[in-house]
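PROTOCOL LOG
Step 1. Enter all chains and additional molecules of the complex.
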Amino acid sequence: MFPPKRPTLFPKRYLYSGCASPPRAPKSALPHLSLLADKCISMTQLKQIHAQMIVTSRISDHFAASRLLSFCALSDSGDINYAIKLFNITQDPNIFMWNILIRALANSPNPSRAVFLYIQMRRQGVCPNNHTFPFLLKGCCSSCLPESCMQVHTHVLKFGLELDLHVVNGLVRGYCVSSHLSSARRLFDEFSERDLSIWTTMITGYAQNFCAIEALVLFDRMLVEGFEPNGSTVASVLSACARSGCLELGERIHAFMLERGVQMGVILGTALVHMYAKNGAISMATKLFDSMPERNIATWNAMLCGLASHGHAEEVLALFRKLEKEDLVPNDVTFVGVLSACCHAGLIDVGYKIFNSMKEVYGIEPKIEHYGCMVDLLGRGGKLVEAEELIKRMAWKADVVILGALLAACKNQGNIEIAERVVKDILALEPHNHMVHVVLSNMFAEAGRWQDVWRLRKVMKVGNLKKTPGWSLVDGDK
DNA sequence: CTAGGGTTAG
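Step 2. Run joint prediction.
Step 3. Record the structure below.
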C-alpha cells in the first residue's frame, strides 16, 4: 500500500488508561515539537503542542518541557499560572527550569515569590548556577525584601560565582536598592572586569539614593576610563542633575547628546524635561516638552512636578486640564505634583476638589503622599482640626513625615493643643526624636509657658540633650 | 542543548 500507513507510536490504551508511563517514543519520531514551542505565538497553540507532547510522551524530556515552560513563563502572551502548573507536575526539574520560573516570578506583580521558589529549590538540594542569581536578585530588589540581597550575596560566595559579571551587577544593584551604598561601591571597586552596565548600575544607585554628586563624580571617572555612555547611562546622569540642581552639567550632557547623535526617545526626552524643569529652566523645559513627538505619563509628570516645585501653580493646573483631554491616564505621581502646586499657592478648595476626584473620577486610591499634601494644604490654610481629622481617616498609620507636616502647621498657627497630641504620636514612632521636643518647647516659650518648657527639659534626658542639634536654639533656654 | 544585567516622572 502506498503511501504506507504511519505506524502508531504506542498502543492506544496507554493514552487514556492512566497506567504507568507508556514506552518512551523514540526522539526522532517527532523532532519538531520542541522547536514548534519556540515559534508559538499564543497559549492556544502552546496547549496544542503540550497535548501532543503528552500524547507522544515527549513531555518527560526536560529539554522539550523547558521550551514550553519558557513560553508560558516569559512571553507576553504566555501565562504564568500555566507555567507554575507545568513546573509542578515536572519530575525533578533541572536548573534551567528552576531559573526560568524564578525569572518569571521576579518579573511578576508579586516578586517575593521568586525568593520563596529559590528557598524551595535549595531545600530540594538543587544547586544554583550563574543564571540563577541575577533573576533571584531582581526578585529581591523589586519585592519588599531588598535586605535579602545580603543573604543572596553569601550564597553567591558559597557557590563561587562572585566573578560573574551579571551576578556582580545584580548584587551591586541589590545593595543600591536597599540603600547599602558603601557595600555596593565596595563590590563595584573590587570587581575589575567592569563594563558599561555595571557603571550604569552604580551611577543609578547613587542618583536614586539622592547622592547626586557621587553619581556625577563617578560618571566623570567613567568617561576618563574611556567608556562611552549610552542612553541608559545618560538618562541616569540627567536624573542626578535634576535632583541635585546641576543645571550646567545637565546642559553639557544635553549638548553631548546632540553632538554624538544619541537617539532621543521618550525616556531621554523625559529625563531632559525633568532636568530643565526641576532646575527652574522652565522655558527650555516647555520648549522640549512641546517638541517631543511622543510623550507618556512620566513626561507629563516631569513637566507638572517641575513647574510645581517652582511654585507655578497656575501653569500646573492649566497643564493638568490639558492632560485631561489627552489619551493618557494620570497616575498617583501626577496628583502629587498637582496637589503640591495647590499647596504652594494656598488653593485649598481647588486642592480638595482634585483630591476627591482622584478616587471618584480616576479610580486612584490616594497614598500617604497625597494625604501629606492635603495635611500641608489644610495646615497652611489654618484648618488644623480638619487636617487632624484627615489623618485619622487614613487607612494606614500616620508616618513621621505626615505628622511632621501637621506639627509644622501647628507651630505656624501657634496651636499647642494639637501640637502636643502630634508630638506624642511622633514619639510613639520614634522615641528618640528629640527635635519634636525642641519644636514643642519653642511653642511653649513663644506662649510664655516657661513651666512647660522646664517640664519638657526634665522629660528629655540630659545626656541626650547634648546630642540634640538645635537645642541651643530654644528661646526659653536662658 | 535552552537563559542573563543597566534607563525617564515622586
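Step 4. Note key features.
DSSP finds 28 helices and no strands in chain A.
The two ends of chain A are 115 Å apart (CA to CA).
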